[in-house]
Amino acid sequence: MSKLTNKIEAHDRSISEVLDDNKYTVDFFQREFKWEERHIEQLVSDLTTAFLDEYKTEHERKDVSNYNSYYLGPFVVSDKEGKRSIIDGQQRLTSLTLLLIYLNNLQKELGISETIESMIFSQKYGEKSFNIQVDERIPCMESLFKNGSYTPSEEDDESTINMANRYQDIEKNFPEEIKSEVLPFFLDWLKYNVVLVEIVAYSDENAYTIFETMNDRGLNLTPTEMLKGFILSRFPSGQARQKANLLWKKSMQQLHDYAKDEDQRFVQAWFRGQYADTIRPGRAGSKNEDFEKIGTRFHSWFRDNLEKAGIKGDRSENFEAFVETDFKFFLRVYKLMLDAERNFNDDLDHLYYINHWGIANSLSYPLLLSPLKTVDSDSVIKQKLNLVARFIETFVVRRSINFRKFASSSIRYTMYTLVKEIRQKEIYELKDILRSKLEEMEEKLDGIKTFRLHGQNGRFVKFLLSRMTAYVEQKAGINSSFDKFYQNKNGKPYEIEHIWADKFINHRDEFDQETEFQEMRNRLGGLILLPSGTNQSFNSKPYSEKLPHYIRENLLAQSLHESAYQNNPNFLNMKKELELPFQPHPDFKSDDIKERQNLYQDICERIWDIRKFQNQ
After folding, report:
1. N or C: which end of the chain has fewer CB within 10 A?
2. DSSP for residue 180
3. Is residue 207 located within the same domain as residue 77?
């Protein structure tokens, strides 16, 4: 082995130095891109919060050179004959590339011209290639770069699908206060002040050894471990400290069974929900406050804000009580929340629903924990959690059917303010506050009148149809569930069925333009759910041929056929009791779609009825 192949180098590099006009492949054991929304949310939050903590409106761009640097961690590359392969750090570098693509699209939208394209792709001998090049991801990368979106196909691998989704998460979480003349300052800071440590090995053997070493040992203390260290240092005796340490370690392991960073998410949600008082205003140049500081360095925030956390004075018994009462209580409730998200629970059903269609966890978890008190009974805890979850679900459904986004960046101030308003409230107070917030919303459920399926909202439309279909079946006494339609684990998955086939020529009697036909065809009233395969076999058939088959499907599909209204007392009783305008549709014209749309609105009005927040 030559001296070069034995060599290992480490250097600090700015993002510009790492990505600008540099080429990387991804090694086989680092092949899949697996980051989830929570990872992207944390990355965007960490970077933008660190920048906004430095930025002042009176600054000039040259002042950015004096801003604090931000360390983003190490990455490992193998360099063989000038070809560089990422051994460790692909998740972070791929996410940074997605962020740069988003920022490049954002600056074009804002009419700002900064040169960051060379950090995304470069050109040599007339051929353009991405700086992190994986062949199967190229169509996705190109579409994101050109159009700001990508619709995955059946041939796409896990990484490609994940990249398309994570790009949307960046769009959702990027703060509004940087979407302005502040953006060039942020780009400068990101390029030159955000630092990674590049570790270069010149042989696969050394590269893999470094990879194993970095992933097996030598990890830094996490914020949760530093919080534990501070709290336990205030305990009076070794015995009490040892007991609390064992409790803490066991609790953290339980959280790690859910996800490796669940401990940090728990503390952030607990502290924000129960103790945070101040929020950074949504304008550039503002200082970070409680909510932001807890998101980045909650161990430091706690040390500096003991009184806000209910610890008055530095007496050891206060710290013991904090662990024995507050820590144990909120840990138990947090695990209850996580379990209810993953496994349907009748008492906490809305937690399950918002796990599939809700706001970011950084907003929902503090909101859920906020009204709780350590003296609450299990019954009261469940009622409070489900009320808040019902509010969140109603909020996001209303926003979605009115084509309004609910990205963290656009609603964070609203939600964090609400956290403070509902903190430690009794159930009757909680109901009044949440009902009034929904009454004040501009977006109402009558947005369904014109709601339709389009390229970016398929997941929500399936959520909506799944909730409606399960609701009417359950009210008619059928053993049904939301899961059956949304993610059927015990049978064929359900898909969105267009009642009209995609054949404009068959509807020339009602439409002059195909765009008008497509708009009506995609209306919610023209959609149902059918099992995969059934949906595909019906896809191109005219309505007259589909209708006889619908009677064998779910109740919402059956209701199109006149046979559903004969010898079907449970369905007819449900229709009468709920006063729902079900009717058969022997033909299916534009007016029929509008009538079904009215029916769907009435069903939604019953599912998300704000009278559920009234005190009896």
Report:
1. C
2. S
3. yes
Q: Are residues 210 and 327 in the same domain?
A: no
Element housing 596 (H / E): helix 590-607
pLDDT, one tens digit per residue, over 12-48 is: 999 999 998 788 887 655 567 888 888 898 899 889 9
Domain interval for residue 374: 223-443
616's tokens = 């009896």
Burial label, 575 (beta-carbon count in 10 A; 0-12, 13-18, 19+): buried
CA distances from 137 to 140, 167, 274, 536, 578 (A): 5, 13, 43, 27, 50
Beta carbons within 8 Å of 202's beta carbon, 6+ residues apart: 4, 5, 6, 7, 8, 78, 79, 80
The neighbouring-strand residues paired with 83 are: 80
Residue 521's closest CA among 545, 537, 505?
505
243/344 same-domain check: yes
pLDDT digits (tens, 9 = 90+) for 201-216: 877 667 667 666 655 5
Q: Round to whole Å and give the CA distance between 434 and 539.
A: 43
Cα 292 to Cα 296: distance, rounded to the nearest angstrom: 7
d(CA 284, CA 267): 27
